[in-house]
Design brief:
The chain is mostly beta strands and 123 residues long. It has strands at 4-7, 10-12, 18-24, 32-39, 45-54, 57-62, 70-75, 80-85, 94-102, 112-113, 117-121. It contains no helices and eleven strands.
Length: 123
């Protein structure tokens, strides 16, 4: 069982930056995909960005809706996934989840989820 724990959320003003972290317990399976998924109040889940890793390498992807403002990365030594969010907008306000799929890709159903970290963007 893989444990995921998000941190780094908080209150930011429009135009500011935040970095979210997702610490994962040790796992060794490949391929896998780790993603950030957000949910605004009263809304559905929205995939934001993620990494896919298999024997050929690690590849990052992001949703068109974030328009290049967010960057996903991973520190393998720390087993931690990051989401660097720049130029934040009020519509980025949401609960941000980290999710992991074992032996699957970015678009597959995720097996493990964290508890989420709240991001609020407001002036």
């Amino acid at each position: 069982q893989v444990q995921l724990e998000e941190s780094g959320g908080g209150l930011a003003q429009p135009g500011e930056s935040l970095r979210l972290s997702c610490a994962a317990s040790e796992f060794s399976f490949r391929p896998y995909a780790m993603s950030w998924v957000r949910q605004a109040a009263g809304g559905g889940l929205e995939w934001v960005a993620g990494l896919y890793s298999d024997h050929t390498g690690t590849y990052d992807y992001s949703a068109d809706s974030i328009q290049g403002r967010f960057t996903v990365s991973r520190d393998n030594a720390k087993n931690t996934l990051y989401l660097e969010m720049d130029n934040l907008e009020p519509q980025d306000t949401a609960l941000y989840y980290c999710a992991l799929v074992q032996n699957g890709g970015i678009a597959d159903q995720y097996d493990y989820w964290g508890q989420g970290t709240q991001v609020t963007v407001s002036s």
